Amino acid sequence: MKKTNIKTTAMFAAVLIILFLGCKKNDILAKADSEYEYLPQDVKESCTVSESDFNSWFKTGKATENGLVEPANSVAFPHNNNCDFYKWSEQMFLWITSPTSGKTVMESPVFYNVSPQDPVTGKRTLEAHKPNALLSAVSNINQSGPNRLPVLIDESGKMFEIEAQKSDEKVKDDANKLVQVKRVVANANGLHSFFDAKGKEIKNPKPVIESEINPSDVVQEFKVGNKSIYLDSKGNEVESEQGQAGSHGALMGENKSLVYYITMVNDVYAYFLTGVNEGKLNGNQFPTTAGARDSIVAYAKTKGWVTPPDADALAIELKTSWVEAKDLPNADSYVTIKAIIPTYDKSNPNKWVENGQTTTKLALVGMHIVGSVAGHPEMIWATFEHEKNSPNSAYSYLDKDDKIKQVKADTGKGWLFNANANDTIGSQNIQNMTVSGDSILIKDTSLASPTARRIMAWGVASNTVPNGEDTTPAASNSEIISINNAIRKMLVGKDIRKNYLLIGATWTFGGAGPNGNVYPYGAVNDSIPAGDAIGTAQLSNSTMETYVQPPSSASTESNAISCFSCHSDNNGVKPTDLSHVFEDIISLPANNKRILK
């Protein structure tokens, strides 16, 4: 049986941040911001926001230190060029993290927590944010592919989904007949043989893939003792080097805190979902027009619910990542909240078992912002990280004279999610912790330090055309760096939001239903639809997609991965085609009462 070497893992986190040429990169966490620059300062200013426009984002009409920012008007979203999408992303992040009434906007009643899936029903609930109540966080985030299955990444960067083994697993033999598998045995070379109930070897077994979406990109799991092996649709064996493919990975920072996650939606999203479930609102796509907004507001009035104060923001879904603030160097550089997190009995160093809850201060390390806007029902998918999360791989950018400059891969110690970044090629993004039920399994207790690195610094491959506007990776990277520089310079004083960076954003050409491919892949192959994911389409976050990053030169259809590689059911724009939580969420109760303070 042919064996394909695989680099694996479940879907979680990617990487961050960059220090510029000539800067000392040792002790990054401990240094003050004034000691070095994170971003190239000679970058071409290809995406900026004027001072007057920036001031208009603030509630008072003028930028103030840690001032309240209004949400972007998604109904009037211009979508003329890439920069419009990046500016929308920046304004939404500043709004969501704005202080209001002693908390942040995301803690306010404008947002609802989305609960984890019920282990029996698979359903989720919307938990209203109340003035005196704390948010609850979990130690893993559900990541899956378009069939809602766990994923693994092979050595070339190709993503597969995993169908779990069944109790009566069958394969097709070389005569294309179904045969039940009784056992799988490994030989001295590590290759596996399949045997039926009579002890007869099954020649050339091929799995029976049941998934309907891209079945050629799905593998079947088979158990061999405590180990899992995987067959692709052609019967080729793919092997997980780390032995944790398809599991929910856990991540720990250098401050010995697990990463915790909170998923949220805004009130417009929650009202829309409930109205769709009740058959009162059109559920063919997320709201993108004034008419759709008005229908949601009118529906809320029929229920006696509070009118969304920021209805023009349209539908927003957030995934946020956090670490405990204690033992963080420069803890005052993080947006923080008080929250409830699970506690663990760690008496067994290889298996931590959840044993209760505690209240703690959490520091924000990452955020996905997904929102519907005019002309784009597939939504904008943007991601942000704290500047000191993780090192970047090498990347290029355009300077003010349109010359391409190269930035070497970040090295040194002190990153929150990388103990020693000097190894820029070898052991990176190694998954050592796995969430299993109410436990966290630690494969190797000697590998206590994280090794996160963002392979694509600003969300584009190093050897291809990123989108229709940017003909080189350097041009695309420059847009992201430029808007980050612009925002950071205009934030006043020691505004805490200066410490976060937009890593990028993606959407589809013309608001089309995503086909799962990345621009321009497939354009030269008639058998593969041309990729419609544009912007910085190969986007990752080092706290949420750490273990599913393709190589930086991901220039083929098979290994180019974007948000839409997983969020693209049926190539459509229905909420259930795009969101992995929408169909699981139970409607708001009729007595959904909120006090907006």
Kindly describe this structure.
By secondary structure, this protein is α+β, with helices and mostly antiparallel strands. The protein has helices at residues 51-56, 82-96, 267-277, 290-303, 473-490, 575-578; strands spanning 3-6, 99-100, 103-104, 111-114, 126-128, 135-136, 151-153, 159-163, 170-172, 178-180, 183-186, 192-195, 201-202, 206-207, 218-224, 227-231, 237-240, 248-250, 260-266, 316-324, 336-345, 351-373, 376-386, 395-398, 404-407, 413-415, 418-420, 433-436, 439-442, 500-508, 533-535. The strands form seven sheets. Strands 4, 5, 6, 18, 19, 20, 21, 22, 23, 28, 29, 30 and 31 form a 13-stranded mixed sheet that branches. A hairpin with a 2-residue loop joins β2 (99-100) and β3. α2 (82-96) packs parallel to α5. The radius of gyration is 24 Å and the shape is globular. The N and C termini lie far apart (64 Å).
